């Protein structure tokens, strides 16, 4: 809650002025029936036109002040609530940027999107209500009651009884609605998950002709939400008839009692008319209060969900005096064990002890899910180890400034992502200030220049969102060029040339040897041909190092490696190590 309230600070002035003007608006509104009664009783009934003019003038001034205050209160409320929502969105966005991979793993993308959109909008609406209506409604209620008692004590008892009855009924409705709304917001996540998954993977959906299935899934999520809202809104709809019933019953009773009093001369006509106005105001304010409770209950669920994000502490931090210099690109895994859930005991990597010299090219090969990506993720400290240590340039990765480390260790991830913008814009993600010549040089090393030159607009070619207008292999080469622009000490290619033909793959590796000889290179690949000319190759099996040597030695001594090699030489294609493992068993 503290983190959420901190976002209001900037709009403190607007948040204070809103209730101030709202209060002024209510006071002036409450005066109007009283002045009206005076006009009738002291002016019209007594035939005194001076009183009519005086009270009429006061009435006009009160009405003008009330209108102006209402306008100002609305303006400040809009500014405070929209500003609050804007700050809240920014705070969530900023927080998510600080998350480590393991923090991100905890929240679904759909969940994050719902929190930044629907939940923030709920909180915004609730806040606007709180600073405006939550001040207006109780003030109106209290003032109406007080004025009513001042005019006629006996009739106010009818009014009081009506308010208590209405309060109880509305309370029951609100309680039931709150429960339904809390459940409804959970369903929003399902709906957003369905939209997000379908839209981001629309090509796969179409390729597998799963449109009907996806449509049914969406219809179900949307239908669930529909049912929840219909249930909640039906309950809220009861507000109006209950309210009208109470108001009209009240008016009938007051008319009956009032008429008797006016005839008996114990009450004036103007007083009776003002009592009617106060009764209606009080009932209206009760109705407003019930709406506020519903809004607050809706936003409580949203506030809880937003707090979860803001409270989450990033589990990777810079140490004290983090290092911002790196001797070289040597990498050491010192008895490293790693699990995605620390303390769960489910080790993904076990006792890895590897020592790699700066400038070496290291191939990594192994079956699907054996821990190749997990191993290289530790070098740029995307996760922390459970046991042991990972050192780059002779220093523990935890002792580096994380931004500095990640600029020195460049990773081309398995899932390549390009952003909407020109090719040059995308390349400059690697180095903001890279010159055109440096960008072209990086593209030459990544063998991307040949296809870029064929585009009519060359380096100014616009890449659509998600890189949909370039092929898989072209995307991979652009991502490699982007990583090269960082001029890293360590370069990691996580299966990044899988969509590139074998000849281009070889050309990229040859270009690396020439253009970045001092950079330590890790190449994760499924093809032996992608790693066989590496200085050494790590063979991973079930999270353990099964072999670490040159291609020739491994073919001779390592059973797993030899199997992969032979199957690829004979089969001439990529090897699914997992199926080979099964055959072996
Ligand atoms: N973010 C994650 N959270 C939990 N478990 C994970 C996560 N990422 C991977 N794993 C698990 O860790 C193990 C190793 O995964 P990893 O991605 O390192 O394998 P890999 O050898 O790179 O596989 P592939 O060749 O398919 O890319 C797998 O069992 C996988 O299910």
Explain what this protein looks like in three dimensions:
- The protein is α/β, with parallel strands linked by helices and 585 residues long.
- The protein has two domains: 2-311, ABC transporter type 1, transmembrane domain (ABC transporter transmembrane region fold), CATH 1.20.1560; 331-584, Rossmann fold (3-Layer(aba) Sandwich).
- The protein contains 21 helices and twelve strands.
- The protein has helices at 2-5, 12-44, 49-98, 101-106, 109-151, 153-200, 202-207, 211-237, 239-264, 269-311, 372-377, 402-408, 423-427, 436-445, 449-452, 472-484, 502-515, 528-531, 551-557, 559-571, 577-584; strands at residues 331-338, 349-356, 361-366, 387-392, 395-396, 409-412, 421-422, 462-463, 490-494, 520-524, 536-541, 544-549.
- Helix 17 (502-515) links the parallel strand 9 and strand 10 (520-524).
- Helix 5 (109-151) packs antiparallel against helix 10 and helix 6 runs antiparallel to helix 9 (239-264).
- The longest helix has 50 residues, at 49-98.
- InterPro entries: AAA+_ATPase, ABC1_TM_dom, ABC1_TM_sf, ABC_transporter-like_ATP-bd, ABC_transporter-like_CS, P-loop_NTPase, Type_1_exporter.
